[in-house]
Amino acid sequence: MQLINPWSSQQYKDYAKLRDQFGIAPFNFDLPDAPILFRRGVIFGHRGFEYIYDAIKNNRNFAVLTGLMPSGNMHFGHKMTIEQVRYYQSQGADVHIAVADIEAYSFRGIPLKDAERIALEEYVPSYIALGLDPARTEVYFQSKRQEVKDIAWKLAKKVNMSEFLAIYGFSGEDNMSHLFSPLVQVGDILHVQLEKFGGPRPTIVPVGVDQDPHMRLTRDIVGRWRMFSISQQGATLAVFYKGEDAEKKLKNLISYLEASGFSQFKINVPYKALYILDSQKEDWIRIDRAIISYEKEFNENAFYPPAATYHRLMTGLTGGKMSSSIPESAIFLTDSPEEARKKVMRAKTGGGVTLEEHRKYGGNPDICSVYELFVYHLIDDDSYLKDIHESCREGKRVCGPCKREAADIIYNWLKEFQEKREQAKDEVKEIVSWE
Ligand code: SF4
């Protein structure tokens, strides 16, 4: 079975296959005011998004956690994640951003001081300029936040080497920091549910599919450490509430627990019908009867299993994955508008070999990096996008003017964005937490 390596620059083509292989559910939620990434299938899968959907629909608290790897310049692929974060913030989420300086040190050898400088000078002002509200956003450093490291060592006890190898496929060449770093990520994802950071609540982590190993690890660990578990037909399950009659169902469950001899338990999940998550099938089912088993660690470790959404990874302008280490493959948010324009004009397209062939047989927008820019970033109007797709297929739209259109939009966008980023530098202090 193919493993996903979160630190490689591998490009994935068949997302449906990846979804099936790793048990990722298709993303089919009808979100209010959904931005283009949600409505165009760029976000193609999820784990546990049901409670985030409930939180959005019912105006309940939820958190969003994302991270930045301070090892290079921010590009349009990173912008995509922040746009999702901004959407969740607009729907009421509090935002936590981890500077993955421990990970950058472990995997890229970047000293902590350099990581700090890159994060503060490059990433944080860009986040503000991309529209995150400084008053409801915090940026922290993995290396400075004790709670993150505490969770990492505590939960390390819940994972064995076989599981690590199965998820990450580490080899004898990997040093010990490679093994520790994913546990720090588990700490990042879960610590926002500690009382100090807002308490247990649904948490969403929007990621590229390459980060799925971290999500699987975290959700598996939480599955073993939840406030209580219900075992039914041998599966380990978690309990949630949804629907109109939540209170009645909650009371019924409490009676049931008491009748089953449990006097110490805590249920603080304000959802409405009783559903259970089958952690093996990653699916939701209703329950009527269940055998309850109690885990004594629940008091200090009542975490919601974090939800994840998965977006497609952007194709680089040169083909392959868009990557910070291949400057020509990406539009960086620090590129001058002129530089960006040149990159788009040199981009790999799905056009015919010659103009005549293109006009005769049409182009293929589905393999074109310029069309992908339109879909992911540049064109908001769905009907115009459809028109671009069709006219390219029919050979009526040709690559030169098409690239110029994309280059012009990016040129103007970058100009405006870079002005905003200059102004945002004064606000950086507001959102950085030093503990
Ligand atoms: Fe891509 Fe536009 Fe050329 Fe079609 S016409 S292949 S969308 S650049």
From TrEMBL:
GO terms for molecular function: ATP binding; tryptophan-tRNA ligase activity. It catalyses: tRNA(Trp) + L-tryptophan + ATP = L-tryptophyl-tRNA(Trp) + AMP + diphosphate + H(+). It comes from the Archaea. Keywords: Aminoacyl-tRNA synthetase, ATP-binding, Cytoplasm, Ligase, Nucleotide-binding, Protein biosynthesis. Its EC number is 6.1.1.2. A motif ('HIGH' region) lies at residues 70-78. This is Tryptophan--tRNA ligase. It comes from Aciduliprofundum boonei (strain DSM 19572 / T469). It is found in: Cytoplasm. Catalyzes the attachment of tryptophan to tRNA(Trp). Belongs to the class-I aminoacyl-tRNA synthetase family. A motif ('KMSKS' region) lies at residues 321-325. One of its GO terms (cellular component) is cytoplasm. It holds the Pfam family tRNA-synt_1b. Its main location: cytoplasm. GO terms for biological process: tryptophanyl-tRNA aminoacylation. InterPro entries: aa-tRNA-synth_Ic, Rossmann-like_a/b/a_fold, Trp-tRNA-ligase, Tryptophan-tRNA-ligase_arc.
